[in-house]
């Protein structure tokens, strides 16, 4: 039975109120995070003051240059708010956080990297692609942790530039390439041995809406034989018979190496190996 017009009328302003409340909480969290970075750098400056005879600028760069990196990130976010007319995830802040550089975001990159078991799956000789990478932190962190080469692609140029600033800070430009481009237009010059597709087979901004089969076949065409696809579902896919039927069709192109529930059971993670065409 459908809701009465009166109930629907009440739900709409309540939903809008929740969105405003979330936006305010995220803004406050971002401010607290910025304050935390200030204290981190201030503490390091005090250490430098007491240990001037042993500490030089180069050895302290990882902390002491954080303020400039964060100023660059804030500039990108300000330009996004002013100029970007498409959908911005996480209230205009980076969807991904990166703890090693104290970058504020919704989901922790390092925690996800370990939760998905990527340290055991990605090898130094791999060439990795992260589809719909947001800031590209998962690709960046994979290169940082394993020594692999990694590419990331996302439609949002401001998030990509944030990732590029972080790549330069970590001096990984020779191993990491991040590109602002729709996935449907991406034409890689090489094949990949590892591909990450984390809830990107359709997007909330509706810039990418294709059949799951078409998404996976496009990935298949970019992969080396035996390459690994780490595929994460959307929450709406869990329990969806149409989603599982589409995956079954892909058994002619991929072999399954594992499946498990993630994010408190709201998403599913699949490990899939590319079969020869």
From TrEMBL:
It comes from the Bacteria. Residues 129-209 form the Methyltransferase domain. Pfam families: Methyltransf_25. This is Methyltransferase domain-containing protein. It comes from Acidovorax kalamii.
